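User: I'm writing a short methods note and want a consistent example. For Neurotransmitter-gated ion-channel ligand-binding domain-containing protein, I'll paste the sequence; you return only the structure tokens, no commentary, since I'll be parsing the reply automatically.
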Amino acid sequence: MTSEQMSNYKRFLTNQEKLFDKLFKSYDPGINAVYTLYHLPETNVTIHPPRFEIEIQLSMLKLVEVVEPEEKATFLFDYQSNWYDPRLTWDPEDFGGINHIYVPRSRVWIPETTIVDCSEVKVFDNEYTRYVWLHSNGSIGMYTASVTSVVCQMDVYKFPMDTHTCSVNLLFHTYQLSEFLITGKTGTMPRPVNQLGNGEWQMNSIQMTIEPVVDNMTYLTRFEGTFSRNPGFYIVLVMIPAYFINVLSIVALFMDIENRSDKFTVGMTNIMSMSFILVILSEDLPKTKNLPILAIYTVTSLAIMLVSLTAVVLLPKLKNYYANRRLARGEKIPKNDEVPRTCWGRIKFYFKVEYVFMAVFQIANFVNFIIIFT
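Assistant:
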């Protein structure tokens, strides 16, 4: 640093010290800047300056975690707030051209803001970062960084292709609606919105709304994030394997239908696989009144397998029953490996009734699988 630069720096520090003395000599941060005198006692006429204005600008809303059984979403929630305090103004010409300074938060009055509808809030407000910026016209701004866990209702009917909307809500409890005004906007994010999710979830959009609540007594500021699940994990590791397990199980059940001892093993193995999938879903999803479509698919697959197993048990008995009736009428029963000579007889020989049942259950299994994606 040159001697001239050092001289300018010392001059700046001296002017800044004088400015601090001027601003905070009689300033009390415990007295707020919200105007509350609406009616003068003498005239009872409404005479007051414009409402106190607070500007909220969203800087970051990144999805960290979604705990569906608890219907809870965790965000990195950073925002910038700006307001005006007429007690902290000065003429830059009187203080060497200084038009803004940085002041510890404890030295200025800060409007009360509360994050509501949340289960946990962790604010990164270490002492060495707790500063606000103050401009000569009295405008003050500060940056707040936090990790916020919010509770939001989740509709998991379309799981694993589900989409949810959760919001981080800021409420100004203390002040009356007629005393202050909130303006807000979504600032420029450090990354595109679609990169603000995590490995399982993708952020689709971020919106901000401001609305009066509690009988129009205060404002609620909502920062809403809409995010959808990346379904690849469940499609590849749950849905497709479950579908092909059912396909192979149905084929195994209706091939060589007379050998029923092995059919029960195949059927019970399939039922256990589907039951295991249901157990996984019951642990990962909230207990809502609407069953997720994947659970409906699994239960339907289980029902198809139970009906198939029932058909395998009953078909041999029905075939024996009709064979005995034909014998009673004196009809000739062809052997199993004897190919009939007539065209209709050959059709019935090659397209046995169990194959028809197999085709019907395979179609039902395929339709059940396709419905998930509609």
